[in-house]
Hints:
InterPro entries: DabA. By secondary structure, the protein is mainly alpha-helical.
Amino acid sequence: MNHSEIERLIEKASKYVGDTWPLYSFVTSNPLSGYEERHFFQAVKKAESLLEADMFPKASVYRKALERGEIDHFEIQKLLKKKGYAHTPEVSLELMATRTANKTGHKECALDQYMVKWLSSFLDEGLAEWQMPFKTEGFYMAWRYLAPYDDSLGKIGMNMIPKTSEEALEILLKGQSEETILMVLDQHLAALPGWTGYIKHRSEKLHAWQREAPIDLKDYLGR
């Protein structure tokens, strides 16, 4: 797996990452914009899998709409029958509520928490009173210089860390099929959609900050 192949696969995986504008901007951000070319139900299924989230409203929202007459009871009953369901809309909503209640929540990943710590330090854009050192070297290099001082990693020397994000990804992805690599990239990019969306937005549109402290999705994934 060489550099150009890695770049190609990151580009392919990142199409599901929507632009996230900075918090100080009044421009609306749509984190699902990367799914717009897909059929609605395909997009929902993909987003639900990657984001580990419910993509439809809760059963209580539908129930209130049904009670208020905002949803036609007869039409819903007809659709249920067409799809092979014998339940009434009310019973279907009860089953939907039970299924949702039994779903286990997403467990916070230690890696995600670790990444948020470093990303928030690097992407403060001048707001932090104490600036993260080595930011002009880029995100991956700045982290590489400072990682040996991070107690949460245990004893680690800079010589134990690959010199570039490309090298790190080559080592991690060596021998894997393209399908497996895309699945891994998809999952890691979707783990922190707000951050990865902002990295994508910044690398493409905020050129001044990129000159000051460069970062891209490759650095995020390699870290």
